[in-house]
Amino acid sequence: MFSIISTEEIDLAAKYDGGHFQVLKKHHIFSLLFVLSLRGRMEVHMYNFRPYNDRNWRMRERIRDRIIQGDAEKTVLRTEANELYHDIMPIIRNPLIGKYLIERMTLTLEDEDYFVGNKAKYFCGASGVSWPLMIDIENEWTLKDDGLWHNPEGQEVRLSISQADIDTIRRLTPKSTRAFSGGAGDAWMPDGARDFFDLMACDYGRPGRPGNLVSPGHLTPGWPKIINVGYEAIRRQAQDFLDQRHGNIMGDDMRKYIFYKAAAICCEAATILVKRYADLCSAKAAETKDPERKAELLKMADSLEWISKNPARNFWEACQAVLLYQLFLMTMG
After folding, report:
1. CA dist 276 to 60, 196, 270, 273, Å?
2. In angstroms, how far apart are the furthest CA atoms of the chain?
3. How far is the C-alpha of 73 from the C-alpha of 169, rounded, in Å?
4. Within a 10 A sphere around the Cβ of 159, how many other Cβ atoms?
5. 0.85 cut: is pTM over it?
6. Residue 134 near residue 151 (C-beta atoms within 8 A)
7. Which residue spans within the chain are E strands per DSSP?
8. Which residues contact 228 (CB under 8 A, 6 or more apart)?
């Protein structure tokens, strides 16, 4: 039925009942496995997962039934940091602002956690949200008995936020926005753009929203480098360049010096983030009565302390390093 012509580099061309179909991309691995299994070239086995335990089930239920609560913590911290570093060039200012947040933002550790990493001070929360700028919450949402505003029933994602956080975000966001590219975007736009945005026909680029929400593009993080090299080696590479030119920066080295200085600050911030979680695990272990959980927390603390500077030694550390690198990127903005 199937005749495989070539499987080199996992590229596949096949004939089917006189017709032709081609799978030419390497990422079409499942098509290759499917054809090879039909040809009897290989056996495909399904992995049998172990039954879930009570711990996994509790976390599943909490995540499934979560209501994402927004807060203003990062809005406050970012505003404070901007006032502190306002006059510094952006390529240095932005890492310093991110480091300021990382040193002060609330870290949490849930009883069920195998890995650490929280985006906000509430479970599955969201910090520094722009909902109060985008939505007329007091007229469109419902104030419930828990003292929080809740988005309308039936919406796919359930959200909530306190009035205090709403007021703080609305008060501070204009200050914060002026510090970043969005402030310049609001100050000047192409002819006719403001008329369009004033029609509210498009959420993106609307004046008054953080950064105008116009994305400058995407980035591709260097995951293998974080896992296999570690933050300290990367920081050391940047610091060596800076040390070699201390007091003697010539020509085009100035641009490179600024870049490497920013890189060193970022690595320091990432190390601080991971170390803070290590300290959190140690503190939690000290107050935990269950010996099994205590041992687990101490092991987590040891691994976090290691990967705060060094490459991962095992699969758990690799997974944790990736998760915290993603959190780091989101926090740095």
Report:
1. 26, 46, 10, 5
2. 74
3. 9
4. 20
5. no
6. no
7. 2-4, 12-16, 19-23, 68-71, 126-127, 142-143, 148-150, 159-162
8. 311, 312
* Whether the predicted pLDDT of 93 surpasses 70: yes
Q: Rounded to whole angstroms, how far apart are CA atoms 43 and 36?
A: 8
> The tokens of 19 are what?
């017709």
CA atoms of 162 and 72, how far apart (whole Å): 10
**Is residue 101 within 8 Å of residue 77, measured between CB atoms?**
yes
Residue 169, helix vs strand vs coil: helix
Contact 148, 69 (CB under 8 A): yes
Put the strands of the sheet holding 2-4 in their side by side order: 2-4, 12-16, 19-23
* Residues contacting 66, CB < 8 A, separation 6+: 123, 124, 158
Q: What's the rounded Cα separation, in Å, for the pair 129 and 209?
A: 11
Q: What is the pLDDT of residues 238-290, one digit of tens each?
A: 999 999 998 888 888 899 999 999 999 999 999 999 999 999 999 999 999 99
21-78: pLDDT as tens digits: 343 344 444 554 555 455 554 455 566 777 778 888 888 898 899 999 999 999 999 9
More confident of the two residues 19 and 304 = 304
Q: Is the pLDDT of residue 204 over 80?
A: no
Residue with tokens 């609305």: 170
Q: Mapping DSSP to helix (H, G, I), strand (E, B) and coil, where does residue 250 land?
A: coil
